[in-house]
Design a protein that fits this description.
By secondary structure, the protein is of the alpha/beta class. It folds into 2 domains: about 180 residues, Flavin prenyltransferase-like (Rossmann fold, 3-Layer(aba) Sandwich); about 220 residues, Rossmann fold (3-Layer(aba) Sandwich). It is about 35% helix and about 25% strand. The chain contains 14 helices and 23 strands. The strands form 7 sheets. It has an 8-stranded mixed β-sheet, with helices on both faces. Strands 2-1-3-4-5 form a 5-stranded parallel β-sheet, sandwiched between helices. Strand 18, helix 13 and strand 19 form a beta-alpha-beta unit. Helix 1 packs parallel to helix 2, helix 1 packs across helix 9 and helix 10 crosses helix 14. The longest helix is centred in the C-terminal third of the chain and has 21 residues. The protein is elongated, with a radius of gyration of 24 Å. Bound molecules: flavin mononucleotide. Flavin mononucleotide (FMN) binds next to helix 5.
């Protein structure tokens, strides 16, 4: 049974921890909780203890607690330590290496993965001091999730500062533990291990600050007549996850999506389109961009002359013959642009056979910087599913990434993209 140590900080979002504990317990995790003094102003140790079914640790200098399970054991017995909500003050204390209360002492003593879910007013989050602390913690190997954009507890305030949703937290905890179980240093080379076991260096907040990221997602619908269309099975989950990850990394994000059944990501400018031609026009309009990720499954063909009215079924008549014509190739058009070409153009290749070879050929033919290739044959469950297994094809070669959630693929890809931009800037 995997053990989660939840460090609850003193913010309004502390109430979400009750749901988080319940969801983790339902999934079979043993959850122990540490509460800061301030956290106890928002929710009670009684409620946390009742839901986690464990004694809640609140004091560093607690003779009984120390005898039962001392702060070092608390820190060491956890497979993952989750800090939620990670207040501005707690982040500052962690960045400084304080150990003057139970929460910080445990965080300093642990050798496990630490995942922080910041939640605070946008002004606090954007303050250079908080951003400095976050960068320091990232360097120290702390993983971050969120904060998300949206409405704040303070009436009428919006911005980046909301704690990640409980479902996002659960998903990230599961994927970090899976990554850890698979051995973080697994030879794939794209995760940076920073010393201590389990501490995987990654960043979330500021890596793409000031950048514009353009993402396409979902299928396109190509009309046959006003009521019928040609479509494909793309759910938009991977493209939307990429837009959300870019936002979390601080970018301004434009998401251009075909018709999908999932919600718009928060804090992202979304343009809804139907056809390939509409998608291309929206992409052109959204330029310039630093990074463009083309994750949409754009229909290769459209019906040459869609019916103006519904095509009627005639008794004893032959079925109508649909003449197809080629749609514009959005990826190639943007990658081959002379002016206003995004610095990094990333295409997706959905293949059902010879995945890597086809992706390598596609990268060259379309003058694309990177191709993310995935096998979408029916047995993989990629279309519409929550997980993905991809290959990253670049000019330097091909990397095969381990199977991850679509959110993890998105975050890993965007981290890489941020690194690419940083290098491009250095070499100018
Ligand atoms: C009503 C109220 C809400 C607060 N919400 C937050 C918050 O969401 N995020 C935050 O960083 N601090 C918030 N604070 C400030 C923290 O509670 C304060 O900085 C405290 O020292 C944090 O302690 P801790 O980090 O040990 O939990 C809030 C304070 C009050 C009075």
């Amino acid at each position: 049974m995997k053990r989660v140590l939840l460090v609850i900080g003193g913010g309004i979002a502390a109430y979400k921890c009750l749901d988080l504990i319940r969801r983790l317990a339902e999934k079979g995790y043993a959850v122990r909780c540490v509460m800061t003094k301030a956290a106890q102003e928002f929710i009670t140790p009684l409620a946390v203890g009742a839901i986690s079914n464990e004694r809640v640790a609140t004091e560093l200098f607690d003779l009984e607690g120390e005898r039962e399970i001392g702060h070092i054991r608390l820190a060491r017995e956890a497979d993952i330590v989750v800090v939620a909500p990670a207040t501005a003050d707690l982040l500052a204390r962690m960045a400084q290496g304080h150990a003057n209360d139970l929460a910080t002492a445990v965080l300093l003593a642990t050798r496990s993965i630490v995942l922080a879910a910041p939640a605070m007013n946008p002004a606090m989050w954007n303050h250079p001091a908080t951003q400095r602390n976050v960068r320091q913690l990232e360097t120290d190997g702390v993983r971050f999730i969120g904060p998300n954009a949206g409405e704040m507890a303070e009436k009428g305030e919006t911005g980046v500062g909301r704690m990640a949703e409980v479902s996002e937290l659960v998903e990230r905890i599961e994927s970090l533990l899976a990554e850890e179980a698979a051995g973080a240093d697994n030879g794939f080379g794209f995760l940076t291990i920073s010393g201590t076991r389990g501490r995987v260096s990654s960043s979330s907040a500021p890596a793409l600050a000031g950048r514009h990221v353009l993402v396409t997602s979902g299928p396109t619908h190509e009309p046959i007549d006003p009521v019928r269309y040609i479509a494909n099975r793309s759910s938009g989950k991977q493209g939307h996850a990429i837009a959300a990850a870019a936002r979390r990394l601080g970018a301004r994000v434009t998401l251009i999506t075909g018709p999908v059944q999932i919600a718009d990501p928060e804090g992202v400018e979304v343009r809804h389109v139907e056809t390939a031609r509409e998608m291309l026009a929206a992409v052109e309009e959204a330029l310039p961009a630093d990074i463009a990720v083309f994750a949409a499954a754009v229909a290769d063909w459209r019906v040459a002359t869609p019916g103006r009215g519904k095509i009627k079924k005639q008794a004893n008549a032959e079925p109508p013959q649909l003449e197809l014509v080629e749609n514009p190739d959005i990826l190639r058009t943007i990658a081959k642009r002379g002016v206003r070409r995004p610095t990094l153009v990333v295409g997706f290749a959905a293949e059902t056979s010879t995945v890597v070879e086809n992706a390598q050929a596609k990268r060259k033919a379309k003058a694309v910087d990177w191709i993310v290739a995935n096998d979408v044959s029916e047995e993989t469950g990629v279309f519409g599913g929550e997980r993905n297994k991809v290959h990253l094809v670049t000019a330097e070669g091909t990397e095969t990434w381990p199977e991850m959630s679509k959110a993890e693929v998105a975050e890993t890809l965007l981290q890489r993209a941020a690194g690419f931009l940083a290098q491009a800037r250095e070499s100018v």
